[in-house]
Amino acid sequence: MTQTHDAPPVLSFPGGRLMSAPGARPPVEILLVEDSRDDADLMAAALAEGTLAPRLSIVEDGEEAVRYLRRLPPYESAPRPDLVLLDLHLPRKNGFEVLADVKTDPALCLIPVVILTSSDDERSFLSAYDLRANCCVPKPGDQEQFARIVRHIESFWLTVARRPRTSPAPELSGGSNS
Amino acid sequence: MSMLISTRAIEILLVEDNVEEAEMTMAALKDGRVRNRVHWVEDGEEALTFLRRQGRFDGMPRPDLILLDLRLPRLSGQEVLAVVKEHPDWRRIPVVIMTSSDDERDITCAYQRHANCYITKPVDMDKFIEAVRSIENFWLTVVKLPAA
Q1: Whole-prediction pTM value?
Q2: What integer is the mean pLDDT of B2-27?
Q3: Distance from CA of A144 to the nearest CA of B (A)
Q4: Cα separations (Å) of B39 from A136, B18, B120?
Q5: Which of A62, A122, A154, B94 has the greatest CB tally within 10 Å of its CB?
Q6: ipTM of the complex, rounded to two decimals
Q7: Backbone angles phi, psi at B48, to 5 degrees
Q8: Using CA atoms, how far apart are residues A58 and B60, in angstroms rounded to an integer?
Q9: How far apart are CA A26 and CA A56, in angstroms?
């Protein structure tokens, strides 16, 4: 199922914000799971600056993230994200739990998840990789560096890497090579 | 990004049967900003032997990152990927698929087997080098690799 968005470019969900960069029907959907308003605003601004203009949906805790991804109310019409940016320290349900939910759910497990965290605890990164995070990126304290890192993530995942088609559900086995 | 500067070289396992592409990849990585050491093997079976540190790979380090081609002799890249990502100790090592295939089924299959990311190798030489540099720049300077 492919979601199309002829609707107004900015949608709002209770408990979540959907911010949209200007431009006609930007193709890429990013879900940002971030409880810090400051960090979320900074990331939204960094993403809006580029030419790729992804659509960004923001939810502020882990429980909302899972509801959004599973399209539970009030997110029935939420697009399936092409990329998830996930903080680890979140209210209600932490980032590890969200990651585990996503990566063990056949409908969601292909979505690339980038962990973004201010934690520099080595064990957090190991746990996240064990739970199948696609990559872990430390948040720099400095705002300019943080914005630069966000743009790096955006350009790598949106222009260099090939992303899986995350909907409709792909066939479950085979590859032309094996 | 001082916290990201590593005191030791990043160990990269490159699994690539095409000599020319392996050489271009190694040259591009050598020019990168982060000190790294590339261990090059030419087929999937050798990749697993390297990870097991068997035979001539005795004493080799555990790689911090694996760059894996899909079309390989003996054991395919998808098979290597499946073994690595099911292994209790190796599963956390990030695996970047680097392949000429842009077949949607290969991409899906690789992500299902928990590839960390998938890159299609450009045919053009300059673009190929640029792609390797992007990988180096992202995975070695932006990403926090899991410490062994």
Answers
A1: 0.87
A2: 86
A3: 12
A4: 23, 15, 21
A5: A62
A6: 0.92
A7: -70, -35
A8: 44
A9: 10
